[in-house]
Each structure stands twice: as structure tokens, then as C-alpha cells.
Amino acid sequence: MLLAAALALLASGAGTHPRAGHPGHACVLAPGELTVDDLPAGSSATRCGAVGRLVTHGGAGLTVPEPGTEVSVDSLTADGSSRGFTLAVAADGTVSYGYDDGEDGGTGGHPADGEGDRSHAGARHRPSPKGARPPRLTGSRADAPAPCADTAYSVADRKEYGTYEWFIGDGPQPGDLPRRQVRQAFEDGITAIIRGRNACGLADTISARARFLAATGHEAGIDQMARCTFRDGMNVWDAGDLSSDSVATTCSWSRPVSRGPDRLIEADVRFNIHDYTFTDDPTEACEDAYDIRSVATHEAGHVFGLGHVGQGHENLTMFPSSFSCSTTARTLGKGDVLGLRSIY
Fold first, then answer.
1. How far apart are CA 149 and CA 264, in angstroms?
2. 293 CB contacts (<8 Å, ≥6 apart)?
């Protein structure tokens, strides 16, 4: 009799925690960091009390934003692996994801690496131990199409509709260079994106705008493990410590509009000066230093809505490694320009 009653109780679901996304019910999340499996797509961030909690996936992480907001993390890596994902919380609290886990690049006119497919569950990447430098990229740019012959691009569902007004952090700078010089390098990277700078003969038809404001004591909303924390309403570019496999990281927050891509409301960028060396003038004597302007151009691409392209597209700026001691990514390839034109 008791056994039958217990079986009936289990069958009814009584005494068990409701699934996180079950409508009309509260849910209980374990303390500490969450994974995308703990808070699956379709869950309610509000009913689960997940707003403000950290969610991780494939070595990347971000803090669950308030309803009606989307946050994305994108990292430039030493080994060229894609590292990042997007978490959106709808106005009613429903959670959805987009993943940057693909290995294959896209083709012109189509998103690359699974971007835009928020139901895609790609392979996960194991993060490197803190303090361990990832291996040098072994892929050959000689095997990839030339920059002006490669039409691949990937775009995120967001756009800067106004003017991107940004600040530079007043702390340590990449390459231990003067803040003024680093600001000029950052500005050069941003300008390359908003003007579509290329050597392919493609005219500048991109309508994006940006303006530098000042130095600030505010920091980018990015922690030491290259995870997005909280936004403060300021677009900050700075330098500090990140996970050892991240050369630089961009965190972007956006909100939906009635028609068109989401509206960018903040984008922060951090360079990893704890694990990597940076230079503003790579020479033949350069060893393992990253060109500030190349990295800045790549990160600015994320700010203005570009995503990563995958293996086989190593000569494009938005390939997820800028290759140490190289200035190639300072100039956009055809796919990079086509991606920006599709947004602006």
C-alpha cells in the first residue's frame, strides 16, 4: 500500500523541482555558477531568480541581464578557436541562446559559424588552465582565400543606430605604451570598421559612427576569466587580466527594436596584458607580440555587429585569431566589408 502510494506520488511529480522553463511555476537553481544546461532555453530568468547570475558555456561566461536585454561575449584567442555565446532574456523573462562554436566559416550573404541559429548546440571547448599559454596557431593563411577573394562573414543581431561614444580606461595600457598612443591605436581600429577600410577597392558605404570621449576610472564590464559582468552605461576600452586563452574580449549588450537588428546599448572591450604582449609597431624582431591595431580592429568589428568566421577564412579580420606579429587584420577583407554593409 505504501509502495503504491509512493509510486503514485512520483508519477504526479510531487516532491520534485519543476523544470526551469515550466510555465506557471517557480524553479530552484543551485548556488554558484550556472551552465546553459542549468538554465536551458525556454526557461524563465525571472521565475528562476536567474537575473544577475553567471552562466557559462564552453569556457565563456556572462551574467544574465534584465528582461528585454541581450548580452554577448566574444573572445579573440591565440589558437583561433571560437569562444563566445549570446544570452537573451525576453520581456516576459524567457531565456534563449546563440552559440559561437562552429568550425566552418560561412559564405557571403549567410551567417557563419552557426551565428543567428539560437537553437544550435555546438561542441564545447575546454578552457586552458589559468597561466598556461595556448599553443601557437598552426593553420596556414596560405591555404585560405586571399582577403579580397573571401566573401565569408558572420553577423550578430545587433546594430549601433547612433554614435558609439567610447572611453579609454585610465589603468595600465597594452604594451606599456602611453595612454595617448594606445587611444590612437584603438581609434584607428574603430575607424577601420566604421569606414570599411580595405585594399579591395570597395567603396565606403558604411553608415556607422563613433566618437572618443575621455579617459575614465570606470572599467570594462569583463572579469578576470573573460566573462561579461554588469554594464554601467559606459563603453569602456581597457586592459587587464583575462583567461589565458583570451587575447582580448568584447562584451555587448543590446535591446530589441520593433523592426531591424537589436539596438546596441553598451559594448566594452578588454585586452589581456597579463598573459600576452602587445606592440603598436611589429618588426622582424617581433616574437609573440600582438599588434594593438589589428586586435582593436577585430574587437571593433564585434562592437558594430560582426561575428567570427571559422577555419578556412584566416585572412579575414574577423577570424578569431589576429596572429601574433601580424598587421594584416588592420585592413578588412571583402567578407568583413560585406558583413558591415549588410548591417549598415
1. 30
2. 185, 188, 189, 192, 280, 327, 330
d(CA 301, CA 127): 24
Closest CA to 68 of 90, 50, 87, 53: 90
Q: Is residue 166 part of a domain?
A: yes
Q: To the nearest 10°, the Cα dihedral for 288, 290, 291, 294?
A: 130
Rounded Cα gap, residues 78 and 80, in angstroms: 6
CATH code of the domain in which 91 resides? 3.40.390.10
Q: Concatenated DSSP letters for 254-294?
A: EE--SSSSEEEEEEEEEEETTT-EEESS--TT--SEEEHHH
Q: Give yes or no for residue 129 having a pLDDT over 70.
A: no
Model confidence pLDDT, tens digit, residues 94-115: 999 999 854 444 434 444 433 3
Contact 71, 96 (CB under 8 A): no
* Angstrom distance (rounded) from CA 83 to CA 236: 21
**Structural domains of the chain, count:** 1
Bridge partners of 198, per DSSP, are 332
What is this structure's pTM?
0.85
Q: Tell me, yes or no, whether 233 lies in a domain.
A: yes
Residue for cell digits 550578430? 156
What is the tens place of the pLDDT at every residue in 48-68? 999 999 999 999 999 999 999
20 belongs to a structural domain: no
124 falls within a domain: no
Chain centroid to Cα 305, Å, comes to: 10
Boundaries of domain holding 275: 33-115+137-343
